[in-house]
Design a protein that fits this description.
By secondary structure, the protein is an alpha/beta fold. Helices cover 34% and strands 25% of the residues. The chain contains five helices and five strands. It is globular and about 30 Å long.
Length: 134
């Protein structure tokens, strides 16, 4: 088992649950993690009830964790990927990275910066209390 991980998800309206779940699976594979290492799927609070994210999270035995805009913005200094479009819309460089970091809690770190599919983005964060430091 690896460290527990939190997935942060950004997605366009109309993106299917299968695409989101496949992206999470791809992210976990990129860091050598198992599905059981995933402890939360976080997204912006205004998108957390969308059927696609609900179904995708359920594929991992989870429910989406809504993250308020202020919490996303507070994590922006730690975000390593910048999208001008998302900065205009959300006030953060990467919704996926900010959501992952906010959900993982203070002093968490990114295990995987944002990766993307056609309609979604995913980043993984490790909570501070379990993060291994070099």
């Amino acid at each position: 088992m690896t460290d527990p991980l939190v997935a942060g998800i950004g997605f366009r309206r109309g993106t299917g649950a299968d695409e989101i779940a496949a992206l999470i699976t791809r992210a976990l594979g990129a860091v050598g993690a198992a599905r059981t290492d995933l402890t939360a799927v976080a997204t912006a609070s205004d998108r957390a009830a969308d059927p696609s994210i609900c179904t995708a999270a359920a594929a991992f035995g989870l429910s989406p964790l809504p993250i308020e805009a202020a919490a996303l913005e507070a994590c922006d200094p730690e975000v390593v990927t910048r999208s001008a479009r998302i900065e205009r819309l959300r006030g953060v460089g990467s919704l996926a990275e900010a959501a992952a970091l906010a959900a993982a809690g203070p002093e968490s770190r990114l295990a995987l910066p944002r990766i993307a599919s056609a309609g979604a983005t995913c980043a993984l964060a490790i909570p501070h209390n379990t993060a291994r430091h070099p």
